[in-house]
Amino acid sequence: MESESNIQLNTKKNKRSHSKKASKHKKRKISTRNVKKYKNNGDSSSDTESESSNAVCECCFEWSKELYECYLCNRKYHVNCHIPEITHRNENETKWQCTLCEDITTISKDLGKDHDVDNISIGTVGRKIVERILMELFCRFADIDYFRNSPNKYFFRQNIYEHKTERDGLYNIRNLLSKNDRYTSLDIFLEDTKRVFVNALSYYNVGDPYFRSATKFLKHLHIMYNKWIMSALKKSWKKRKQMAG
Description:
Residues 54-104 form the PHD-type domain. This protein is mainly alpha-helical. The chain folds into two domains: 53-101, Zinc/RING finger domain, C3HC4 (zinc finger) (Herpes Virus-1), CATH 3.30.40.10; 103-244, Bromodomain-like (Histone Acetyltransferase, Chain A, Up-down Bundle). The protein is built from ten helices and two strands, in the order H-H-E-E-H-H-H-H-H-H-H-H. It has a two-stranded antiparallel sheet. It starts with a helix and ends with a helix. Mean pLDDT is 74; it is low at 1-53 and 154-166.
């Protein structure tokens, strides 16, 4: 993992003349309507119409005939949008909890206890953390939409041989994570996620809305890294040192 100072950015760097216009976005408001697992079955009742107007996926912000709802926060998701994917095992559960409602701060305290900090295979603490990081990025702000795919595919593709994989934005990272072959370590995941925003800084001018969004998301990534990864590791290292005497 790169040092904390490497994640912090100097927004005066990486200026280029390829500035593009973009609309400003406000922080996305989270739905709190108390509707149980939403399925549009064609019912034309007023209740169904009222529910359908609020039935949008929290990750992609698109309406669907079938969304699954967290019983704690009432957010709704497509099966494939939620991270991890909603499986057949929990589709029929009356009380399903989304990743954003998990107590990741408490969970992250166990990072490093198994002496395998970098492991993000399914079921590990590291995996829970990276899934939460992606969900935070996808769901918290509307202007993340631009970073779902590569801001400038040519810019990403010209680095394909150096970085071994084509950078197509957060969707690509999510898909690679689900395949369980590319991301064998926490470091690789964090580096790829950071690069999505760093590359945008290399393409847009400082005053461009996309530049500001990329800077904001890098700061948000840095906050999550400090809170759920570095904080847990420092405590783990301190405890090991005390035990070593």
